[in-house]
Hints:
Elements: H1 11-23, H2 38-43, H3 46-51, E1 76-82, H4 96-105, E2 108-115, H5 118-130, E3 139-143, H6 144-153, H7 165-170, E4 188-200, H8 201-204, H9 212-217, E5 225-228, H10 231-241, H11 251-266, E6 270-274, H12 278-284, E7 289-293, H13 294-303, E8 307-310, E9 316-324, H14 332-341, H15 345-355, H16 365-371, H17 373-376, H18 385-389, E10 391-392, H19 399-413
Parallel strand pairs: 1-2, 1-3, 5-6, 5-7, 9-10
Antiparallel strand pairs: 3-9, 4-7, 4-8, 4-9
Helix pairs in contact: 11-19, 15-16
Amino acid sequence: MEQYEPDRLSPAQVAAMRRSFRNGRAALTRRSLLRASAGGALAAGGLTALTGCGIPPAGNTEGGVSAEDHSEEEKTVNFSNWTEYMDVDDSGRGHPTLEGFARRTGIKVKYTEDINDNTEFFGKIKPQLAAGQDTGRDIIVLTDWLAARLIRLGWVQKLDPANLPHAFTNLSAQFRNPDWDPGRAYSYPWQGISTVIAFNRKALDGIEVKTLSDLLDNPRLKGRVGLLTEMRDTVGMTLLDMDKDPGKFTADDYDAAIARLQKAVDKSQIRRFTGNDYTSDLTKGDLAACLAWAGDVVQLKADNPDIGFVIPDSGYMTSSDNMLIPNKARHKTNAERLIDYYFEPRPAAQLAAYINFVCPVDGVKAELEKIDEDAANNPLIIPDKAMQAKSRAFRSLSSKEETAFEEKFAKLTGA
Length: 415
């Protein structure tokens, strides 16, 4: 197996850069930009757009369409990612892990942060994919539900395991078998996104919060509870609280979860449904407790000792952003080598130290301890086995289900 070793930074350098990252660039986090998931798409008529415009209906496929691979003669790979989703150097312009990969392989990475939301980006690449043309990208990063759609449409390529030895070996168990890509034949996770219960200890003023029911039912929290505008996260956590598996629920289960949430809305228990903007309300204490994304909680806790989190005994929701190779990509082998690189513990640790989301790489903790011991021991970044066991994923939806479920959720939230 090839070994790539990105430049190492001292713990002091990393700590200073992380403070700068939190206080500056990280103010606009990855999830703050993920506002047009399937829910956001519905509000803009996006679900229709996903299945219209001549796009064939989603169904099982045998894989995407390859192009002639120019990896050997063209030592490059074109990587499209979300904004603020890569490690940066102290200038704010360089990316140490990408530069380490380039030096050791001779493959230059053309890295572009041109993904602002799933639906918008899908609209950008849809015409080329539908026409069987090269998008100009070798790696794209998409959230579960859209990654699943592209796989069903046959618009991404099956990966070559021979080029992914580290990825196959080091992929964390909780990310190995999503129902939309069993065994990860077409995708590998870039980062995991966990949904937990966050709270402001001062605002709780002695109130105990351990479950979602505590948020929805305690009259002392009336008007001081926040839920998320991401349907899969809020409904998924509600299903878990009702002892239903988000990976296997029925339409009746979904309706029961919506009814449970509607009761809380009707009695004004819920202050509001939010995207990433819950962070300021939680910090100020306007929200005593809320559903939150783990990456945000890590950053908030670093700056405010009153911020805490709890993982309900019933479990928590985990999704992922995923690396895929679109049809007709010119540099498939180079792309697979870059994917594999991020599943080596050392570059994975360097990335995790900056962006604070769930690292999907086993064996990364020892390397991360050398960079940032606090991050290495944070279960929101490196889940231990007990936390991994509580992780649950929202099952794939058919196009019909997606439309119906999002309509009901939009009515609940007033979107």
